[in-house]
Fold these 2 entries.
Entry 1:
Amino acid sequence: MYNKTPGAYRNSAGVVYGHKEAEMKRVFYGTQEAAFMLGISKQTLLRYEKKKIFPRPKRNPINRRREFSIDEITKLKQILGRV
């Protein structure tokens, strides 16, 4: 995938890796990106939320999309036992 940041690349979920500035600017991740980081599908992440295995994430006040911080993703990894 074409990337404007030299020395960086994007994974299949569109997350930029390999460039510290691009990674540091990122505060929240979307559902697809969080699922990729957890090693599960987006559908599984949403199912776990619905069954209350995972806590409900923060939502963007403008578009109501789920937003996951790095700390939240780390907590979800602990719940999955993948730390």
Note: The first strand starts at residue 9 and ends at 10.
Entry 2:
Amino acid sequence: MHGRSESEHRPLCTIELIAEGHAERCPGEACAFWDRGCALARVEAELDGRPEVAELLLSLRRELESGRALELERARSTLSEILNADEGIDASP
């Protein structure tokens, strides 16, 4: 092992890198977006052009990590607003 920890071999966090321009190592299984690997790495190309979505996902992950209850409907609504605005869709009544 040459004295290196497993975390040193992990890639940088996909959403931190896109949302903030810098990143720590991927938290691996401790991440809410981990599903036999980074679920967000699979859509990295799409997220790269949508930093506002990456920011939202990062915010959601941090809320989950801090132990705060996350209202699913609020999270869906926020994501929907961002995606609609990006597409130029006015969803207001």
Note: The helical segments are 14-20, 44-48, 51-65, 72-87.
